[in-house]
Amino acid sequence: MSKEAAKFELVASNNEQMLRALCCVEEEREIVEKEERTLRSELTLLRSKLVSCEAELQQYKKKIKELNDELDTETKGEPSLLAEVEKLQRDVDQARTRAQLTTHSSDVLHSQVKSLETAIADKKRQVERLVAEMKEANLQSLAAAPTDELKLLLE
What we know:
- This protein is mainly alpha-helical.
- The chain has one domain (about 1-115).
- The protein contains two helices and no strands.
- The protein has helices at about 1-145, 145-155.
- The radius of gyration is 62 Å and the shape is rod-shaped.
């Protein structure tokens, strides 16, 4: 019996070791199941983010296409815009040239007006001098003339 008891003890000891090993395996299985659930949740979240990113990518592609279309439209209109700018530049240059000519003409006319004003002032002084000389000559002739002639002239 002691052999059998030893055998039973050995079997019990083996069973106990197996049971402990099984408990460890069971704990590992639970940990693995938790990790699996966590990974599945993360995978679901990542799939959701992927769908969101793909939708956002489609929006960006659409926006890029719209911007390319706008750029094409602007590029097609650019030559006419450049031609208009060049025409406006020529118009500005012509207007500037006309303004310079007008300014020059104005300066010349202003100078001529000053010259004429100076000449008129000189002539006016000459006329005033001549009038003064004539008055002086008249006074001298009146002073030299006899009084009878004066009376006759005054009548």
